[in-house]
Amino acid sequence: MTLLQIAFFFLSALALASAILVITRRNAVHSVIWLIVTLFSVGGIFLLLHAEFLFAVQVILYVGGIMVLFLFVVMLVNLDVAVKQAQFSRQWQLALATAIILMAELAYGIYRGHQGFTLAQTSAVPPTIGNTQAVALALYQDYMLPVEIASVLLLVAMVGAVVMAKRKLE
Amino acid sequence: MAEHALQFLQANPLTYAVVKILIVFAVLSGLVAYLVYMERKVLAFMQARLGPMRVGPWGLLQPVADGIKLLLKEDIIPEGADRWVFLIAPAISVAAAFTCFAVVPFAGNFFVTDVNIGLLFILAVSSLGIYGIILGGWASNSHYPLLGALRSSAQLVSYEVAAGMAIVGVLLVSNSLSMVEIVKRQQEMGLWNVLVQPVACIIYVIAAVAETNRNPFDLPEAESELTAGFHTEYSGFRFALYFLAEYTNMVLVSCIAVTLFFGGWLRPFQSVRALDFLNYMPPVGLLGGAVFVFLLGRHNRVPMERVFFIGLAVVLVLLAGLVAIPVVLNAVQGIFWFTVKVLAFLYAFIWYRATFPRYRYDQLMNVGWRVMIPLALANLIVTAVLRYFLSSHGSASPAARLIGF
């Protein structure tokens, strides 16, 4: 096994194990911590695939930004009450069945491999322009309109959040 | 012998990297310890006191004594604390602070690694340090740490935005996220970015002070309101780790500011031939240091200390002689200027602490959100527009050169 493979399997195992810990911890803060580990190891996998820009964005946005807000909210929850409540809703059997079906589908897809679907060709030679430039060109030249539409949507959501957070508008 | 070692290192890049990491780690730890000493001394002189004097000549061994004291103290874990989180939190802070130095170019010929997302890497990893603070504050299961952690993270999140946007201004000018490329770009321009992006520089420096929780933005540890902030319940070595992380972060933001805005390892006026004699500053500086130490220690009443100071002066003179050899001089040129600039920044940090009174919390938030962020945004827009128009009109005009084309 090469160093790359070892790193990949380590990060994947870490991501899966911590993802399971996210849903099984009784303490919400511990769940958030494991979710951070999950996101971080997924970022590590991006890095292994030479997508260093995605890694940086994953860490800055998810780990450094969104999870901090999660932690803020969860930290202020009354843990004594939260621990006594039921951890799973009554639909967990249904959710488990769905998850197993989805996993079977994925496993089948991977098993069929290149016969089932075509994978994008990856070049053996590293691309001449950096990952950052490639992402920027894709977002702001090739897919300009979808990006703008998504930005407007996000703006609307943000304004909505501000209006809802402000109890009375003067 | 030395050649063999060099060949071995070049053949084994991984070993070479580990060696460089160890050097950076060791030098930084030492620097941070003596940064605390420097802070106490400078503050003392500014307040007409002497500062630490008891341990060693002029208190020079004070950091060692402090370190031993902190190591030997009992590591108390409060009743009702979340044990594992409480134990791990300080390590997160320290690890995040030290990891960032992997991409800091200390000189053109000495950096651990140069990646093409260098700046983003620093932003990403340093944003992890906040978890050490929040988790430490929460896990202590106590009121003051929780409130201190909340304040601290709110402050960090607010000022990170302004700092990030100031950095994007530099990015627009230098066309690269790599720290080494950013410095090389300043070399090509013959101008430091502080002259091209003055607004971004001021915003970054202010945000850096706020992000390191230093005076006048040290509300998270405002003693009169919050005891000691998020690390109130910490003691012994774990407290030392938080302390280490805080000072390492100070060094880090100084390194980033120097790299982005003050030409990194470049000599001042690199492009002016008439000032080439500045290349001899390293030996001259060391000689000056030797004279200073000699004058300081000559009349010391304790014989042992007198011997120490004169010995130190001799060592400095010998070092100056070594550095004056042309080959060595070329090798240390970059690291010398980088160190001088970073030390100037660190001195300024201490200077602020002695000068400014602490902000009130609402003032802090007002400055952050209503002044710094709009200003950073305006700077970004103006830079982007100027860049667009100047680059479409060719790089011949002097205005174009000023903005970096």
Question: Which SSEs are present, and which pair or pack?
Answer:
The complex is a heterodimer of chains A (170) and B (405).
Chain A: H1 3-24, H2 28-48, H3 52-75, H4 79-84, H5 92-112, H6 131-142, H7 144-165
Helix pairs in contact in A: 1-2, 2-3
Chain B: H1 2-11, H2 13-46, H3 62-72, H4 83-99, H5 118-126, H6 129-139, H7 143-174, H8 179-189, H9 193-196, H10 198-211, H11 223-226, H12 236-261, H13 281-297, H14 303-324, H15 326-355, H16 361-392, H17 398-403
Describe the structure.
The complex is a heterodimer of chains A (170) and B (405). By secondary structure, chain A is mainly alpha-helical. Chain A has two domains: 1-85, NADH-ubiquinone/plastoquinone oxidoreductase chain 6, subunit NuoJ (Four Helix Bundle (Hemerythrin (Met), subunit A)); 128-170. Chain A has seven helices and no strands. Chain A has helices at residues 3-24, 28-48, 52-75, 79-84, 92-112, 131-142, 144-165. In chain A, helix 1 packs antiparallel against helix 2 and helix 2 (28-48) packs antiparallel against helix 3. Chain A is globular, with a radius of gyration of 21 Å. Chain B is mainly alpha-helical and 405 residues long. Chain B has two domains: 1-59; 73-262 and 363-402, no CATH class. Chain B has helices at residues 2-11, 13-46, 62-72, 83-99, 118-126, 129-139, 143-174, 179-189, 193-196, 198-211, 223-226, 236-261, 281-297, 303-324, 326-355, 361-392, 398-403. In chain B, helix 2 (13-46) packs across helix 3 (62-72). The longest helix of chain B is centred in the N-terminal third of the chain and has 34 residues, at 13-46. Chain B is globular, with a radius of gyration of 23 Å. The termini of chain B are far apart. The mean pLDDT of chain B is 83. At the A-B interface, helix 2 and helix 3 of A face helix 5, helix 6 and helix 7 of B.
